[in-house]
From TrEMBL:
Membrane topology: Multi-pass membrane protein
Compartment annotation: Membrane
The protein's name in its UniProt record: Citrate transporter-like domain-containing protein
InterPro entries on file: Cit_transptr-like_dom (IPR004680), Diverse_Ion_Transporter (IPR051475)
GO biological process: transmembrane transport
Organism: Azospirillum oryzae
Record's keyword annotation contains Transmembrane helix: yes
The entry's keywords: Membrane, Plasmid, Transmembrane, Transmembrane helix, Transport
Pfam families xref list: CitMHS
Amino acid sequence: MKPIGKLLASKAVAILGGAAGANLLWAPTALADAGHFAYSTDGGARVAVGLLLAALFATLIAETFHKTLAAGAVVAVMLMVSAATPLHIMDFDTAVRAVDWNVIFLLGSMMAIVSVLIGTRVFDWLNARMVAWARGRSKLLANTAIVATAVLSAFADNVTTVLFMAPVVSKAARSLRVSVWALAMPMVMAANIGGTATLIGDPPNVIVGVAAGLPFMDFLYFLAVPVIFMIVALCAFSAFWYRKDLAGAHAEGGGKAGSDAEPVELQDPKVLSWTLGVVGLTFLGFFTHSITHLPVGVVAFAGAVLTMAGRHVILRGPLGAKKAEHLFTHGFEHGIEWLTLGFFIFLFMAISSAEHTGLIAGAAAKLQDMVQAVSVGFGMGLQAKLLTAALLILVFSAVVSAVVDNIPYTIAAAAIVRVLVASFATEFTAAGLGGAELQMTTNVLWWSLALGACLGGNGTLIGASANVTTIGLLEKDGHHMPFVSFLRFGVPVTAMTIGIAALYLTSYVYGGAIETNLVGAMALLALGAAALLRGMNRRLPKTADETADGALSPPAGE
């Protein structure tokens, strides 16, 4: 399962930056951080951890227990096995340190801020504006939610994005009287796809950027084009998948959406103004993370405290001290999804065992053997060999990232990719390629790792933090999403986006990196122009002949 925060560079840099980190990837037999507990790294330990994680995954699919209880039970079993048998697969102190509290504070703090915004009815207001603007066109509303989520997720934490967007799409679905999942599921997919486009969009990109020394603009230049194609494909696929729901959409009160809807009045405008100001400062803190080096969890926590303290001061006068204090305690207890946070904490602990016993590093090492076996077995040329390696990395990363934490996997896989890049650089240099062109060519392996690790999260409910967060928020409102139902939509979307990524990587290798992006950009411009012309034609007034024909035609049903 993917951790839910963004910009987890501190952990990635610490591991990737030095020899100790490299040794950890290949020799995770080292003593635990406490210096007293030695993890077992033999085959038995890896099998035990693998079986327990598989059992957790099966339990989540069957929904036998609540996901938090299931994850907690697996952690308890790991601790008991370590205490009662020679298999040392979990050390409590190390497991607690493995929990990224920066991430937990980020998610909990943003939940608290969102709960304050919900109280001001700003999401109801946004929903009313969206529905009125769409004028009953449910597909347009769904596509607007997809595009807005993708853009926000490219430049901000995708969990923060879905925390803001989930209430909006929930209100919109209620207004249109359609299933909330017809809007929420595409929105979740868009959050994970959009986060793939930039260096700060998803944690694997941070790790890849650090490992390969790739700047922000390289990610934007080489990944934005395929990501935009994926968003276009997602809009089309979602419209087809939920065609019955969207076709039956109608606004509350009858008539066209927005025409008869009651106006929404914002509550506590002073609280809203204060909260939006704090949100702006919070996002500024996220964007300037590389300058201030403040953990994003600290920035979010400070924003949450300022938000709640400001609301308390503002409402203390008109409502009284007791009522203002009650609003704080109620929001703190019910506005934060404590069960969701607990699930992530237990999952961090369980995944730490897979990392320390060498299970993840061992799986990543298999990738190198597969590349070598395929290239030698088929006698491939240099370009075909490079593409084979890129596609294997892409698919393998997508599959693994759909079911396990992609942060330790990406860290381990980065060491493999670094070796492969060096090997291909030597071969291409011998073939006469050099300079910037050599680096651009071999960088395809880094792009394949980033694409696979980020896009794979759409495959399962636990594949990405945005998935778990959105499902948890909507389940609180009474909308249940079974694990298998998520798979029915998530797997085709993942396969579709991975297919687009594979086509992009193929063109990158055989057509050239710059040429591929230029052609892709021109194709996107052509698509945009066609869509604009189509929209303009729909808005053109009917001719006199068309009006007359319409007047002579009998009404439907007669």
